[in-house]
Amino acid sequence: MSDAAQNMPTQRGWYADPAGLPQKRWWDGEQWTEHLHDPASNAYGVDAVLGAGAPASVFNNYLWAIALLPVVSFLALTSAETASPLLGWGISIGSVILAYLDRRQLLRDGLDRPFHWAWTILSPGAYVVGRSVIVRRRTGGSLAPMWVWAAIMVVYVLTVLRTVDEAAAALAAYGG
After folding, report:
1. pLDDT of 82-129, one tens digit each?
2. What CA–CA distance (Å, rounded) separates 114 from 16?
3. Contact between residue 87 and residue 76 where contact means Cβ atoms under 8 Å apart
4. Plot region of 20 (φ>0 → left; ψ -120 to 50 → alpha; else → beta)
5. Please, which residues have CB within 8 angstroms of residue 101's CB and are 6 or more apart in sequence?
6. Of 18, 44, 53, 155, which has the most beta carbons under 10 Å away?
7. Is residue 24 classed as helix, strand or coil in its secondary structure?
8. Are β-strands 32-37 and 13-16 bridged in parallel, bridged antiparallel, or unpaired?
9. Which residues pair with 17 in a beta bridge?
């Protein structure tokens, strides 16, 4: 086995170019690609778009779970008379754990300085939006998880407003 074969990386990511160029080259887990990244081109801490050779799956299951968690709350709102406050806490804690795992996965996949998981404490939506924007800037990916989360939230808010309107109408009918 040659020295070159022994020095091949095993995980996807940006590595020093084996040809000796000053840029980093993307290793897709099996072979070197034609995609190069110049760390010196970063402007104000934001990487230039890395093109099609960016990580194959920047939208992993962790991010999709965070984006879709409001559906659980939505189903509880529409199917139960009262939703337990523990459900909200569970969704919040679950979102923080999923965001931590998501960030860890992005780091393993070679994404430099992904959006920090702690933003999830403020709001899972803040994490989904911030993470989608940062990953888009660095890899050229889409904003699909952000738009899915936003659509779910619009439906959720409209459902809450309808429920409140129905409750107000019921109170008015009973003379309350």
Report:
1. 567 788 888 899 999 999 999 999 888 888 888 999 999 999 999 999
2. 20
3. yes
4. left
5. 62
6. 53
7. strand
8. unpaired
9. none
User: Which conformational region is residue 26 in: left (phi greater than 0), alpha (psi within -120 to 50 degrees), or beta?
Assistant: beta
pTM for the structure as a whole: 0.63
* Per-residue pLDDT at 100: 97
| Most distant CA pair in the chain, distance | 87
Helical (H) or strand (E) element with 174: none
Pick from 107, 151, 134, 126: nearest CA to 11? 107
Residue with tokens 């952000």: 146
Rounded CA separation 35/13 (Å) = 11
Q: Which pair of tokens denotes residue 132? A: 């989608």
Name the amino acid, one letter, at 26.
W
Lookup result for tokens 């660095």 = 138
140: which 2 tokens?
A: 């050229």
> CB of 144 within 8 A of CB of 128?
no
Where are the chain's structural domains? 1-38, 61-173
Sheet with 24-27, strands from edge to edge, namely: 13-16, 24-27, 32-37
The CA distance from 133 to 107, in Å, is 16
